[in-house]
Amino acid sequence: MASYKDKKVITIGVVSELTGLSERKIRYYEERKLLAPERSKGGTRKYSFQDVERLVDIANKMEDGMQTFEIRKMEQRELKNKQLRERMLRGQINAAFNMRK
User: Fold this and answer.
1) Least CB-packed of 29, 40, 65, 87 within 10 Å?
2) Residues ≥6 apart with Cβ < 8 Å to 24
3) d(CA 29, CA 65)
4) Would you say 5 and 50 are in contact if contact means Cβ atoms under 8 Å apart?
């Protein structure tokens, strides 16, 4: 079951109020592929609480002088590292219990 933080149920107006970011800036971050809200049947953007946290993090990094492409590259690197750690851990578990795929 998905966590409530992952459910995309928050509108852009509420996200704007929660983060202090303008709707325009939120859409800009989406254009720069820093987040991907879902769309309702009517085309309304829907965000999760995790997206809200991510937007705050992005805004803080931008305030510190980072560019959107740097943030995207850093997030891609972090994702690759996480996937590598998971594969290594799975391999260690399989080796410890003599399991095969």
Assistant:
1) 65
2) none
3) 15
4) yes
Q: Does 52 have pLDDT greater than 60? A: yes
Decide if 1 contacts 35 (C-beta within 8 A). Answer: no
Q: 32: burial class by Cβ within 10 Å (0-12, 13-18, 19+)?
A: middle
pLDDT digits (tens, 9 = 90+) for 74-94: 999 998 999 999 999 988 888
DSSP annotation of 7 reads -
Q: Is the pLDDT of residue 21 over 90?
A: yes
66-75 core/surface letters (b: 16 or more CB in 10 A; e: else): eebeebeeeb
Residue 99 and residue 27: Cα distance in Å, rounded? 47
Residue 27: is it exposed, middle or buried by C-beta count within 10 angstroms (0-12/13-18/19+)?
Answer: middle
